[in-house]
Amino acid sequence: MAGNRFNSYSDHGVGIGLRIPHYSHIFSQKPVVDWFEIISENFLCDAGRPMQVLDRILEQYRIVQHGVSLYFGSATEPDPEHLRRLKQLVRRTNTPWLTDHLCWGSVDGTYTHDLIPLPYTWEAVHRTVERVKQAQHYLEIPVAVENVSSYMAYKDSEMTEWEFLNEVVERADCGILLDVNNIYVSSVNHDFDPMLYVNSIPAGRVAQIHIAGHSRYEKYILDTHDHPVIDPVWQLYARAIERAGYTPTLLEWDDHIPTFDEVHNEALKANKYLEAAKPAAQPDSNLAGVL
Amino acid sequence: MANAAMPLAELQRQLAAVIMTPLTADDGMRESTPEGRSTRAISERVIAPNSRLDAFERLELYNQQYWYRVLDSLAEDFSSLRALLGSRSYHQLAVAYLSAHPSRSFTLRNLGSKLPQWLASHAECTGRRHKLAVDVANIEWAFIEAFDNAELKPLAVAEALHLTAESRVRLQPHLRLVALKYPADELVLDAQHRERAQPTEAGRNDAREELKPLKLAAMRSKSTWLAVHRVDFSVYFKRIEKEEHAILSAIECGATLGAAISQGFKGTRIPASNRAAKLRAWFENWAELGWLCAPEI
């Protein structure tokens, strides 16, 4: 059986993010793509072209929802309207699992629309666990949390990022969207060994993996999603697959977006690692008895 | 003795205040928040430096990311306003607006919802083109609403023509009514078919291009009434008569058709003998366009 309970035992392989510059290609060429990831917040409107596009995509493709503003680590309460609309969208897309980030970004109802890292403290663990559980309970589907790229660290942190991630997912009993590019970016920005991170996460909870490119500056790396995946990130990916097995994998490309084929081909490079981890097909038990 | 850990909510409030403080002219982080708190002191209290960046510089990255993201998003939504004012004036306006009205929504779609109203009382941000700028902002916000507001099943033309003075109807949610001081719709027509850019989680580079204010022939003030609506997933502008605007606005506020019509013809120059024919034509047209829907029960 493919997958695990954190991705509803899905057999999703390599997908790409659904982005506006590719709409016309997708609708005219109907390329074979295993699945698309949508940014949930782009489809929380009532009607109009976004929903028309979504419905057309749903006619032919599998969709997984990825959010950018649930802010599981925000100390103040979430907007109930956000959760209500998300649930409506979940019913529309039939997403087998839903993801958002392990970060904060809103305070007292004001949104920064950024993914700000949390201090890795016990207070933040407890708060985040509460919020993840709340979302999972309300949305009635498995939720997986994604590790973010970060450019700052907190003096008050009481544990490493991967220890924090482990505490949250174990206590909330949720999945992990493991972004190996984010691990790489943060490892350079915070001087840690990215392989130690990959080796430390509970592999059985990995519901999905993100791969992406980034931009390197003199003193830091910025997670810009505007380049191909670099070799060190592929190495982290290979190790993650080695540990977690066959896992739905998604390439993010959000800026300076090249043609659909370029993005898709970059994503399909993941198959080099993924196919080797594919579970062997089980013989049909009924036929096995006959033959 | 080391400081006790700051409670999570307090830490997030303090950092948000710094992150949302407008950048300096060369896109650096300011030394203090608008409330006068030292951004350097907050950074050093909370953020750990690394071998390449001090605490202030690390927090500055988030300060920059915040402003690049919200300014980009607002500029996408108000591209005609930006073209009208030029990038420098527009940038000052956008920073002032976003400082007064930071996002209160989980979606960036709503970032500019208060801009037209805010701009109306901030003439200092637009100079001599103030009224025109307010008109353009009103049209661009109406465009956003028309683009993805809900769509209800409209009344059929035959049903609409059998409505009585006591009837109440509901306007199609994606129909937006705009009253203008200038025929500003002509200015924004070139932007009407654009797709909204999608927000993502990616970090931002600052890629703002310099844009000089539009060179406009002298535009004369002329009251203009506009219906902004959606047909087959595209947004259209339609000029309507003053009386149509008034009747539709009254309907939107919940008036009976009789009351809405009385209000609409208040002070009109349309001769009484022509009004019935006008009304019939308008209702037929509104019904054909799917603007009239059954009232909410």
Name of the CATH class of chain A: Alpha Beta
Distance between the termini of chain B: 65 Å
Mean of all residue-level pLDDT scores of chain B: 92
Estimate the strand proportion of chain B: 5-15%
Beta-strand proportion of chain A: 15-25%
Shape of chain B: elongated
Any idea what the CATH superfamily of chain A is called? Divalent-metal-dependent TIM barrel enzymes
**Which structural class best describes the helix and strand composition of chain B?**
mainly alpha
Number of domains of chain A: 1
Could you tell me how far the N terminus lies from the C terminus of chain A, measured between alpha carbons in angstroms? 22 Å
Q: The CATH topology of chain A, please?
A: TIM Barrel
Give the low-pLDDT segments of chain B. Answer: none
What's the tally of helices of chain B?
A: 12
Overall geometric form of chain A: globular
> Order of strands side by side in the largest beta sheet of chain B?
3-4-5
Major β-sheet annotation of chain A: 8 strands, parallel, barrel
Order of helices and strands of chain B: HHEHHHHHHEEHEEHHHE
Strand order in the sheet with the most strands of chain A: 1-2-3-4-7-9-10-13
Quaternary:
heterodimer
Q: How would the blueprint of this fold be written?
A:
The complex is a heterodimer of chains A (291) and B (297).
Chain A (H helix, E strand, L loop, with lengths): L13 E4 L5 H7 L5 E5 L9 H12 L1 E5 L13 H14 L4 E4 L2 E4 L2 E7 L5 H18 L3 E4 L6 E2 L6 H12 L2 E5 H11 L3 H7 L5 E7 L2 E2 L4 E2 L8 H14 L4 E4 L7 H9 L2 H4 L10 H6 L1
Parallel strand pairs in A: 1-2, 1-13, 2-3, 3-4, 4-7, 7-9, 9-10, 10-13
Antiparallel strand pairs in A: 5-6, 11-12
Helix pairs in contact in A: 4-5, 7-8
Chain B lengths: L7 H12 L19 H8 E2 L6 H23 L1 H7 L1 H14 L14 H6 L9 H19 L8 H5 L8 E2 L4 E5 L4 H4 L35 E8 L2 E7 L1 H11 L4 H8 L7 H17 L3 E2 L4
